[in-house]
Design brief:
The complex is a heterodimer of chains A (about 350) and B (about 200).
Chain A lengths: L1 H13 L2 H34 L15 H10 L11 H17 L18 H22 L3 H32 L4 H6 L11 H14 L11 H4 L9 H26 L10 H5 L2 H22 L5 H29 L5
Helix pairs in contact in A: 2-10, 2-12, 3-10, 4-5, 4-10, 5-6, 6-8, 6-13, 8-10, 10-12
Chain B lengths: L2 H22 L3 H21 L3 H25 L4 H6 L1 H28 L6 H4 L10 H12 L1 H22 L11 H6 L2 H4 L12
Helix pairs in contact in B: 1-2, 2-3, 7-8
Classes of the chains: A mainly alpha (about 350), B mainly alpha (about 200).
């Protein structure tokens, strides 16, 4: 067994760099897209169970093929472009959303050494990419030339900029405890204790901000079907809509992965003891992501949508001062007890 | 040509082309979008010279925050660009003078740098730590928060003053605005707001 693995490793190292990079990208992107499809199924099933319904159960065994049927349906529909729309920006917006959602995965460590690009500033890269996500929405809102889409785009811009501030402060708190911007080092720093225990309030803030950052319920005001009839994507149909949809769900998985890496110990098992550390790291990573995604869906099935001023108040008047105090408190504690890494 | 050279030329060409489009685009929203593209390519150039921290901060601060607000404002404005263009010839001499001064300064800087003279005064004479020993995040932190901490704090204070100034200028108290009092809402007791009454049939409340 180890012989075969060694041979495989040697074969892998012999391949030219470009082939290895493309293979690495495919190994990440293909499971990600399948995972995204399964996430929509998972969401519908979980919400159905919470609301005493059946959920999709006709296409394939247990309705498992439903997301693929939905995708096929979207592909076969006609793409409608509004006459007054700004065509270039109109088509660039969904592509940008989808692209940014995928690009961020380059730095996510799935296990020890299992990362496509192990860069020094991994956290900043993730933060940068997630802050770019707003452009897809705001461009879509503007280019559609429709008042509902425009209102949705404006809401998205204000909302995502507001919650990025608190996400940034939460990341700073974690970085204070790690002393490195590298994602693998952040996970390894949690070998003794996962950060959600000492930094529990920040974990909660990060989770709620992640909901707002991905425009998920109860902060899905940019979509807001009851008042904006679909928000920024109201003019989109067929494949362009599908790209927004894919982007939103992949971003959800990405924010869950970020939560897992920053607070739930990444690929590490809960305790480093016999039956638990037999399970390979990537499986732990996926299991934890699934748990966070379940919480995303749980929140959506439970809570009503926020009003816009309440959303802004929560971001600027509650989260910002609170996380700022926690940054000062954490650094104070670390300096006082001489724990700075 | 190595991969780095190809990447450099790709970033540089897109950067210059989008910078030109920023000032030539008819639609102001397109201008802002090209500006964002230019920022992005500048970040790519920073990555190529090994300054990955500056590159990420450029994307986070300028692209992720400043340009979003910029785009936000430009989208809301109803500007007639034909009208704005009418004053173009009138302001051109001033613009050319300013541009010429900046260009001359840039040339001076490049010439002194090429001649090996000190450009930034003392900061440039300080020993540069080798790249393999200290990451550029640490190096920037060392300079900002240790070597030049007072200058850094003063610039922070100036920004704070500017921020407070902007708030003071725009703040006006409007009478008669109803606001949600969350504390008051949460303090409500059942006895204060719910009343159970026996309503006689056909009697009404």
């Amino acid at each position: 067994m180890s012989d075969i693995l060694a041979q495989l490793g040697a074969f892998w190292a012999d391949l030219p760099l470009i082939v290895r990079i493309i293979a690495g990208i495919l190994v990440i992107v293909v499971p990600l897209l399948i995972g995204m499809a399964l996430l929509t199924y998972f969401e519908r099933k979980v919400m159905a169970a919470m609301q005493l319904r059946q959920g999709p159960n006709l296409v394939g065994p247990f309705g498992l093929l439903q997301p693929f049927a939905d995708g096929l349906k979207l592909l076969s529909k006609e793409t409608v472009v509004p006459v007054q729309a700004n065509a270039g920006v109109f088509f660039a917006a969904p592509m940008l959303t989808f692209l940014l959602a995928l690009v961020a995965w380059a730095v996510i460590p799935f296990g020890e050494g299992l990362v496509l690009a192990d860069i020094n500033v991994g956290v900043l890269y993730l933060f940068a990419i997630s802050s770019l996500g707003v452009y897809g929405i705001i461009m879509a809102g503007w280019a559609s030339n429709s008042k509902y889409a425009f209102l949705g785009g404006l809401r998205a811009a204000a909302q995502m900029v507001s919650y990025e501030v608190s996400i940034g402060l939460v990341i700073i708190t974690v970085l204070l405890c790690v002393g490195s911007l590298n994602l693998s080092k952040i996970v390894e720093a949690q070998k003794t204790v996962w950060f959600f225990i000492p930094l529990f309030p920040m974990f909660i803030i990060f989770f709620i901000s992640a909901l707002a950052e991905t425009n998920r319920a109860p902060f899905d005001l940019p979509e807001g079907e009851s008042e904006l009839s679909g928000g920024f994507n109201v003019e989109y149909s067929s494949m362009t809509f599908a790209l927004f949809f894919l982007g939103e769900y992949i971003n959800m998985i990405l924010m869950s992965a970020m939560t897992v890496i920053l607070f739930l110990g990444g690929w590490l098992p809960p305790l480093d003891i016999a039956p638990l550390n037999w399970i390979p790291g990537p499986l732990w990573f996926i299991a934890k992501i699934t748990f966070v995604l379940f919480c995303f869906i749980w929140v959506r099935a439970t809570l009503p949508r926020y009003r816009y001023d309440q959303l802004m108040r929560l971001g600027w008047k509650v989260f910002l001062p609170f996380s700022l105090i926690w940054v000062v408190l954490t650094s104070g504690v670390l300096v006082y007890f001489d724990l700075l890494p | 040509m190595t991969l780095t050279t190809i990447a450099f030329y790709a970033f540089a060409i897109v950067l210059l082309a989008s910078a030109v489009r920023v000032i030539t685009a008819k639609n102001p929203v397109h201008s802002v979008l090209f500006l964002i593209l230019a920022f992005f390519n500048a970040a790519g150039l920073f990555v190529l010279i090994g300054a990955e921290f500056v590159a990420m901060i450029l994307v986070i601060v300028y692209v992720g925050a400043v340009a979003v607000l910029f785009l936000f404002v430009v989208m809301m404005l109803d500007i007639n660009f034909q009208e704005l263009r009418q004053g173009f010839m009138q302001y051109m001499p001033v613009g050319l003078v300013v541009g010429a001064i900046l260009a001359v300064e840039l040339v001076f800087l490049a010439v002194t740098q090429l001649a090996g003279g000190p450009v930034g005064g003392q900061a440039n004479n300080a020993p540069i730590p080798p790249v393999d020993q200290v990451t550029n995040t640490e190096a920037i932190g060392q300079i900002l928060y240790t070597d030049y901490v007072y200058a850094f704090q003063v610039s922070g204070l100036i920004l704070l003053v500017a921020m407070i100034g902007a708030i003071v200028l725009t703040l006006r108290s409007r009478p008669g605005v109803r606001r949600q009092q969350i504390g008051q809402q949460l303090d409500r007791k059942r006895a204060e707001v719910v009343q159970v009454r026996k309503v006689p049939t056909r009697g009404g409340v």
